[in-house]
Design goal:
The protein contains 21 helices and 32 strands. The protein is an alpha/beta fold and 726 residues long. Strands 14, 15, 16, 17, 18, 19, 20, 22, 23 and 24 form a 10-stranded mixed sheet that branches.
């Protein structure tokens, strides 16, 4: 009757009302007075079936509780249940020892399991290098191997000695301009040897490195300069005009001397830097809509890079590709770590890194390649199409949720290379754990901590979460950042003390697996990761709400295709009466689009088939032309869908150069195409002479009032929908 009244959703895999049962028989089953003349004693029996997912039966036998724990073997294994039983005994023992304690505060972990968890989370001990800053470690390496190649770029090579001399010279210039310990110096350069020259020079001069990505919007660059208090910007002539107008001195990185010219001046430019002095600022997304700067000290940077060298095994002779944006802290691992081991850095230009085939060709000599999952997938596919990386020995993919199928593809396509997952938030100085991929991958493994790093999975009160139980990941050890610039409340909230050691609460949900591997499960907040960058959707939402036409906004990370995660914004517009500027803005947008499309279509496509003109069909994700094979497949599939409807009279809004028109019109009685590009329509007219049922009109996509009652039985609204002004 209860099941009938509650009416739960029924399923054959479990009972309808509950799946876990606990019974306590609090009558002594050990033999009491019983029935007159009858002696009672327990009679054990082995049960091989289970009625529920989990059953725990306890009974009093003398001064003890004795019971049975039964479980479904297709849900739980014996090791998990043994841990559960040990944890239950620990809770009972804690309750007896402290009967006044709240249930939620009773210790659940047996001592042995706690020791196991701490061992899993403790990286190998490593000797302290005395806090030697990275630029001094590089100088020592340059003294050992002065003529070895340090930087490779576009067919050019720069030796360790050459790089050191150039950095010294720029450091002297910076010192002369007042740069000292703690001075924030922004670096805004295209990818090339100059990035390393400027980076080392800032540190040699005692400054704090602030990377600026020249591809970022001017508004963001302006905010970073103002918020950081940067006093100088090192840039190049081609980019100087892109920087926002601020009272910041600009140092142009041009006309730097050759190694011989620099050596003649002599004299050291290196300032006395202490381990606790700041090395760099990296801005990350902020939940309030304002980016926040993470402050990393020299000791923390040196700790991570040296620990990474020990774990990843960078060596002399290695060539490491540098693909990451300078605004992404993993760029420091790519740029600097190889130089501490005597290897070389292959810097790849931004435009080269955007094209997979060109990229694979450009890094043909690298032995170590790191990329975020989205880019790594493109590299794998390019290699499948014939690209080769003959020297590759180590593949590094960074991220907390690397798709398992990508890891399997990497191992399949590059069987001679070791595949390793890297994990670490910016607040832990680049990376804090690694996971070598050796077999089939389940979930999202983060691996084990670097030397000198400690990882803890904690419950809501900071207690250790049991093995296999989700909790928040806390990181401590040598790489933990100083905090957030100018954000003391946020710093105090996220950077805490654990057993006398500074730790960072990541907000990442994780658990320890029985094999000692840390597994990523998601976030405790709304933060997302897209193409390697941690993003607070609230920051994007706040920026959208600042737009005059937006009343409310919600931003989500969607992954409509595996491995291609994108940000998608949903907005609620303000009432039309509040937006007198919208009409004018819409006209300007449409005019700009019309000019753009006319110019695009006017270019000579050179297509053998004039009905398949693909100029202008670029990916909104990469900005690159969509491959011809994919376009042909899309056109064929779309035409097939339309013809399946057997239309007679078709209206196509935004027909362009006739990709669909030329293939559908022959099967119709009337086909009318509209477009606001006169150039596109003229192209259709020239090649539609044999299609008398085709008519065309030049108009905007939302100007269709005179078509009311025209008798069309099918309206095709193609990609033009994305350009509607409202």
């Amino acid at each position: 009757r209860l099941v009938e009244e509650v009416a739960p959703e029924r399923g054959l895999s479990h009972t309808p009302l509950f799946q876990v049962m606990f019974q306590l028989q609090n009558v002594d089953a050990g033999g009491g007075p019983g029935i007159a003349g009858v002696r009672l004693e327990p009679f054990g029996g082995e049960t091989r079936t289970v009625r529920f997912d989990l059953e725990l039966d306890l009974g009093e036998v003398g001064d003890e509780l004795v019971g049975n724990l039964r479980f479904r073997t297709d849900l739980f294994d014996a090791a998990t249940m043994e841990r559960f039983a040990a944890q239950y005994r620990a809770v009972l023992a804690a309750a007896v020892a402290s009967p006044e304690e709240r249930l939620s505060r009773l210790a659940i972990l047996p001592d042995e399991e706690a020791r196991t968890l701490l061992a899993y989370g403790s990286g190998p001990a490593r000797e302290d290098a005395g806090g030697v800053p990275v630029h001094r470690l590089f100088a020592a390496q340059a003294a050992r191997t002065p003529e070895a190649p340090a930087v490779l770029f576009a067919g050019e090579s720069l030796t360790y000695a050459g790089l050191d001399v150039r950095a010294e010279r720029l450091a002297r210039r910076l010192r002369g301009l007042g740069v000292g310990v703690g001075t924030v110096v922004a670096v805004c350069l295209e990818r090339g040897p100059g990035v390393l020259v400027a980076l080392l020079a800032v540190w040699k001069a005692g400054g704090v490195y602030l990377p600026l990505d020249p591809t970022h919007p001017a508004e963001r660059l302006s905010f970073l300069l103002g918020d950081s208090g940067a006093e100088l910007v090192v840039t190049e002539p081609a980019l100087a005009g892109l920087l926002p107008a601020r009272e910041v001195e600009v140092v142009l990185l041009d006309g730097l001397p050759t190694p011989q010219e620099g050596a003649e001046e002599g004299g050291a430019a290196t300032a006395e830097v202490l381990p606790g002095d700041l090395a760099y600022l990296i801005y990350t997304s902020g939940s309030t809509g304002t980016p926040k700067a993470v402050m990393v000290e020299h000791a923390q940077l040196a700790h991570t890079l040296r620990a990474s060298l020990e774990t990843l095994g960078f060596a002399p002779g290695d060539v490491v590709a540098a693909l990451a944006s300078p605004a992404f802290d993993i760029s420091l691992l790519e740029l600097v770590a190889p130089l501490l081991a005597g290897g070389a850095v292959r810097i790849v230009a931004h435009e080269v890194a955007r094209d997979p085939e060109t990229l694979v060709e450009a890094v043909g000599d690298v032995s170590v390649l790191h990329a975020v999952p989205a880019l790594m997938r493109q590299v794998v596919e390019a290699a499948r199409r014939g690209g080769t990386l003959p020297s590759l020995r180590l593949l590094l993919v960074g991220g907390d949720s690397v798709p398992p199928d990508l890891l399997e593809d990497m191992r399949e396509v590059f069987p001679d290379a070791r595949t390793v997952v890297l994990y670490g938030p910016t607040e832990a100085a680049i990376i804090c754990s690694t996971h070598p991929v050796r077999g089939a991958v389940e979930g999202h493994p983060l691996g084990s901590p670097l030397p000198g790093v400690r990882l803890r999975v904690c419950g809501p009160r900071g207690e250790l979460a049991p093995l296999g139980v989700p909790g928040e990941l806390w990181i401590s050890g040598g790489g933990i950042a100083r905090g957030y610039l100018g954000r003391p409340e946020l710093t105090a909230d996220r950077f805490i003390s654990v057993e006398g050691e500074r730790a960072y609460r990541t907000g990442d949900r994780a658990r320890w697996r029985p094999d000692g591997v840390l597994e990523f499960l998601g976030r405790t907040d709304e933060q997302v990761k897209v193409r390697g960058f941690r993003i607070e959707p609230a920051e994007v939402e706040a920026a959208l709400r600042e737009q005059p036409g937006v009343r409310e906004a919600v931003v989500l990370a969607r992954e409509d295709r595996p491995g291609e995660r994108r940000l998608v914004a949903y907005v609620v517009p303000k009432a039309a009466v509040e937006l007198p500027h919208v009409a004018e803005s819409a006209v300007e947008q449409v005019t700009a689009w019309e000019t753009l499309f006319d110019d695009t279509y006017a270019q000579d496509e050179g297509e053998e088939d004039p009905t398949l003109q693909l100029k202008g069909w670029n990916s909104s994700y990469t900005g690159e032309p969509i491959p011809r094979e994919e376009m042909i497949e899309w056109v064929g599939r779309t035409v097939e869908r339309i013809l399946a409807l057997r239309p007679d009279r078709v209206l196509e809004i935004g027909c362009g150069t006739g990709l669909l028109l030329f293939r559908v019109a022959p099967h119709t009685k009337a086909y009318h195409g509209t477009d606001f590009s006169g150039v596109a329509l003229e192209h259709v007219r020239r090649h539609a002479a044999g299609l008398p049922q085709v008519s065309l009109s030049e108009r905007e996509a939302d100007r269709l009032d005179d078509y009311a009652g025209a008798g069309f039985d099918l309206v095709v609204v193609n990609s033009v929908a994305q350009y509607f002004p409202d």
